[in-house]
Amino acid sequence: MPEIAIATEKLTRRFGELTAVDNVDLQVEAGQFFGFLGPNGAGKSTTIKMLTGLLVPTAGRVSLLGIDFARHPVEVKRQIGVVPEGMGLFERLTAPEYLEFVGRMYGLDKPTTRKRSDELLEFMQLADRSRTLIADYSHGMQKKLALAAAVIHGPRILFLDEPFEGVDALAAGALKELLGRMTERGVTIFLTSHVLEIVERLCSHVAIIKRGRLVAQGSMEQLRAGVPNIEGETLTLEDIFLSVVGEGTERPQVEELTWLT
Amino acid sequence: MVDLNAESSVNRDQGETDRRPLPSLIEQLRLVAWLRLRSLRNGLRNKNRRMDLLGIVVSGLFSSLLVIGVTIGLFAATKYIFDEHQQPYLGLLFLGLLIWWQLFPILLAGFAAQFSFRSLLRFPLSFSAFYVVGLVYGLADAAAIAAVIWMGAMIAGTLASQPGAAPAMLLACVLFAALNITVERLLGAWLEKILSKRRAKEVMFTIFVLSMVSLQFLNPVLQKHGAEVKAGIQRVLPYLWLLPSAFAGSFVAKASAEQWGAALLQLAGLAMYVVLFSLLLWHRYAQLYSGEELSEGTAPERRAKAEASDDLDDRDSLGFLPPQIGAVFRKEINYLKRNTFLFFSLLIPPLMVFFFSMQFAGTRSGPFKQGITPERFFPGMMAYLVLMLVAPSYNSFAHESRGIQTYFMSPVRFREILLGKNLMTMVIVLIELSFCVMLVGFRVGFPSTPVTVATLMAVAFSVVSQLTIANWSSIRFPKRMDFGKMQGQRNSGMSVLLMFGVQLVLAGISALILLSGRWLDSPWLPAEVFTVLAAAAVAGYFASLDSLTELAEKKKETLIETLCR
């Protein structure tokens, strides 16, 4: 039986009257490249924050690699890497200083941290900006650094919130290859992105959340099977997403903007 | 080359909407005023902003008193000058206005809320409209409004004494106002360019703060070198006629004496200033209008890879600490080095100790004729140091910004983070304290051994007790602060209240214990009591760390939301 890397049971988060995440049951197997999709405000970031310990669930349970997050937060955090929504960088440090800080926080010794930091900066094409403060980095450069920090300790699960946003095509290509290789080694990657083409190309499994509720979950084939289509036509993830999310939702009509069209 | 007067010529051949004429200049000004009003109104939805508005209203009331006072003063001075036929002194009144108008906005530049005037450039605003909007903004400035009121008082003073000279005064005031607005906007535009560089901004604020501290030394310097300073000022005075204020004053003086030729010459001098600065402002605004990049524009220099880590080596100088505490401590050192303002503010306590030793201690003439003895001066200075140095710990996550997420994502308990941060505070306190102890010893002399030991134990008790409470305050009442920015850079109200309360109580307890030794004629008693209290404070501190870790876990959403916003 495959190891379950990420499991949630009736995961719920309420903000006052608003239920942002509503009884979500997720199951992600170890080594999966898992895409987590949803329209704006659906609850993606709230879910990822609860999965990474940045937000306390109102109800329900999170278990990573079989360990209960609420009971053993430090043990769980040791095994995961995160690129959160705001990237979580200390902007007044340089990239090597930040990576050293993160490496030491994960308990790596100094020579190992230094070696990995140098290699990661080289890979992310940030080595020639190693004296620049993070505050002076472009958005894409900050994203690459946040990714480097998320993997420096060799996590078993990687949570990525919009990891390719602002990253140039060259670096994005190398990153996708790196992430692919990591999954081959058994690392689980949990990714959210609004760019459906990226998710379709990278992810083996996908879940879709809408208004806080999980409305679809499974492999691409399973999701395709669940959506009606014309015979002989292969559904793209965008078709599936629009079909699942668009159900019961009125889509904006371009024709209404007559003065523009 | 950008055609500054081309008004949206780009899309003329496109759809119907694009061919509509742009709004008139007045309409554009009205729209900008509406935008500012809306921004202010919508900003008040935020509770903190409402508190800020209350602060503005209260400070506005005090400012009004100043404005009313100066208005009455200027009215009386102008009337007196005309009554007593002392018109050559009118230039001094204009000089006062000039200094106020130009200096006050610069002093406020770091503190006042700035509306991004440049952001208007994304709209199809003609250059002339952009220029006029810029000038109108200058007139809406608090310093400008006060100066206009004061000029009104000068006109009223002239009317009351010599009505015939009032038209000349009015003309001088109008031209002088035009000049001041132009110069103020020009300085503002240049200042904006300088302050757009993060480092320059920090350095400037640091210089400002150190200048303010240095002002404390003005009195002692004047006492010692008063005659030389006076002679220096007298040497400069004859050149004041070159200033526009002198032209404005002389114009009114000559016109009131009906010396029309000389008056016109003075008026021409003033007008020349207006034209010159208008041209400079026109040029500066043209650069802005053309899309000048003001942010940290130049890309950081590409450096050789080998250089990247040349200042880092594999030896861990903090190897004796657990890696997580060492990491936080090292990060705190880096943050202190990068925060120019905070870094240089560490110079203030020794400077103030030096100043206090000059003013109050020893047997010298001054406010304290007898001088304060080392027995009292030493404990007083140490209390002052603790007050200054522990204060930032009450909001110790202020500068973390989005980095706070890293703390919560890392596999560490919050106690390690608190320990790393507090260790940094302790090191700073120790360094400053050692330096100041030597300074006090050199300047004033050391007190008796029992008082020295009691004071140092009291410092240990106070610092450790305060760090425990300050940790709680940092988690419970966080407030974000930004580097190189002074506007709104203060702790939350509750945190400030707590800090004052705690410091007051601790100072009271410490004073009582110190005095008890004298009352009971037992010189070592305070030292013994403080040693016990310091040991209890240390035990309490370590006992509190687990509870604070739990509290941080409970409050992490508030912390992240407040600091990442």
Structure description:
The complex is a heterodimer of chains A (261) and B (565). Chain A has helices at residues 44-51, 73-78, 95-105, 110-123, 139-151, 169-184, 196-202, 220-225, 237-246, and strands spanning 4-15, 18-24, 27-29, 33-37, 59-64, 67-68, 80-83, 157-161, 188-192, 205-210, 213-219. Chain A is α/β, with parallel strands linked by helices and 261 residues long. In chain A, a hairpin with a 2-residue loop joins strand 10 and strand 11 (213-219). In chain A, helix 3 (95-105) crosses helix 4 (110-123). The model of chain A has no long low-confidence stretch (mean pLDDT 89). Chain B starts with 24 loop residues before the first helix and ends with a helix. Chain B has two domains: 22-218 and 236-289, no CATH class; 323-564, no CATH class. Classes of the chains: A alpha/beta (261), B mainly alpha (565). At the A-B interface, helix 2, helix 3 and helix 4 of A face helix 11, helix 15 and helix 20 of B.
Q: What CATH architecture of the domain at 1-79 and 188-261 in chain A would you give?
A: 3-Layer(aba) Sandwich
Number of helices of chain B: 20
- By CATH reckoning, the class of the domain at 1-79 and 188-261 in chain A would read Alpha Beta
| Radius of gyration of chain A using CA atoms only | 19 Å
Strand portion of chain B: under 5%
Tell me the strand order in the biggest sheet of chain A.
Answer: 7-8-9-4-10-11
Provide the gyration radius of chain B in Å: 30 Å
Q: Which bin fits the share of residues in helices of chain A?
A: 25-40%
Mean pLDDT of chain B: 82
